[in-house]
Amino acid sequence: MTFEILLVTGCILAVLSIVTILTARIEGRRPRVAAITVVVAGALILAAAMIAEDGLQFSDVPESFVQIIAAILN
Question: Whole domain around residue 65: which residue ranges?
């Protein structure tokens, strides 16, 4: 598994967890599932940073999304 897959999955989960946190707060519930999702997203992004050969930079995020989308379409 390459670091691009981990990075893209972590970013998508992080965005979805923000939506889940807001929904839980609006409905007056505790965001338990969102907290678990934030931890998993953070772990995936951290794992991607550890696997990347030259470290993880901000410019790697859009490039990773493009590479994953290109791999899916091909």
Answer: 3-73
- Rounded to two decimals, what is the model's pTM? 0.85
Residue-wise pLDDT for 54-66, tens only, equals 888 888 889 989 9
- Give the total number of structural domains in the chain: 1
State the DSSP string of 21-71: HHHHHHHT---HHHHHHHHHHHHHHHHHHHH-TT---TTHHHHHHHHHHHH
Alpha-carbon radius of gyration of the chain: 14
Q: In whole angstroms, how far apart are CA 12 and each of 27, 28, 29, 30, 69?
A: 23, 24, 23, 22, 13
| Biggest alpha carbon–alpha carbon distance for the chain | 44
